[in-house]
Fold:
Amino acid sequence: GKPLSEIIAREAPLKPLRALSIIEQVVDGLTYARQHGINHIRLKPGTIMVHTGSSFERERVAVLDFGIMKMLTVQKASEGKDSSPYRSPEESAGRAPDERSSIYSVGIVLYEMLSEKLDDTVFDTNEREMLPALVKVRPDMKEASRIDDVLFKCMATIPEQRFQSLEALGMAIDALNM
Structure:
C-alpha cells in the first residue's frame, strides 16, 4: 500500500465517497484497537496505509505505528508540547489523550483529504483556530455542508463537544450515506 500522506500530496482533494470510505476503515481500526486496550495517540496520514487492489475491490486501509500508542491503563500526559496539526488541543497542552483525542485527529485527517494539504499557519502553538468550513474551501462539493457537521464535531477544541466515542463517530459517518 501507500501512505495516505502520499495519496493526499498527489491527489487531494479526494472525492467525498473515497475519503469517507478510507476514514470509515480508520475509525473501525481505532475502535478495534481501543476494544483491546490500545489508544493510538499519533494518528496522521503517514500512519495510515491504503492498499488498492483490482479495480473491482474497495481500497483497504490499515492503521500503523502502534509503537506510538499508549495502553489505556497507563495514560500520562506527553512530555513537552507538540504543535502537530493532528494532535488534539489537550495533547498539545500536555494533558493525557483519550478516545476523544483520536476523534480530533480523525477529523483533521478527513478535512485534509477533502480540502487539500493543511496549511500549518492555521495552527498557532498557543491557541488553535478553527479550520474554515468545507463549504467555503470546496464550494464545488455538494456534500460539504453535511460533512462539515461531522467535521466540526470531531475537531471541537473542547473534548466534551466532540463525539464521545469512536462508535458514535462511525455511526455519523455511516449516516452520511454518500
